Amino acid sequence: MTESDQRSWRETTSGRERVRHVVELLDEPTPIQEIADRADVSRATADDELQRLKSDDWVTETTVDGTKAYDLNPVRMLFDEVTNLIEAHSRDELENQLTELKEDQEELATEYDVSSLDEFREQLADEELSAEELRERRNVIATWEAINMELGLVKHALQLYDDVVELSSPRTDSPSTLA
User: Fold this and answer.
1) Helical ranges in the chain per DSSP H
2) What pTM does this model have?
3) What is the DSSP letter of 2?
């Protein structure tokens, strides 16, 4: 980030917003000071916002080399992804998406004459492949993994669809009272 971009970022976002933005991009447990440095805030500001995010279940606290560190909460991320799918798509759209993803997966299996991603991976070690072929296969593996992950999310969304829609709907019943 250039100095001008850094200055603009500081001027247009609060320190807490910058900490949240940095946290959203974490791909591994990260010490507080590193988060503070990336967000361009004091350690105290980062620690305070991270404590709030922890109490809201957005991050988990851990230790890296004896130093307190934070990472995104994978359970919360999963639920958010599933909820976003449900909010953005009808059941019919999700079922169509499931079908398309399954077709993509089957096309890869057919194209490479394998029954699974694991079998495809085994071919990397078993066959003599050029560097170009290995690069292509690694790209296929990344695509296949992305399809598998998306398939899992869509399946979860379909399993939870009715419950999430029902719980998200405004209640029109009169509130019950305890006698």
Assistant:
1) 3-12, 15-24, 32-39, 43-55, 74-88, 91-111, 117-126, 131-168
2) 0.67
3) -
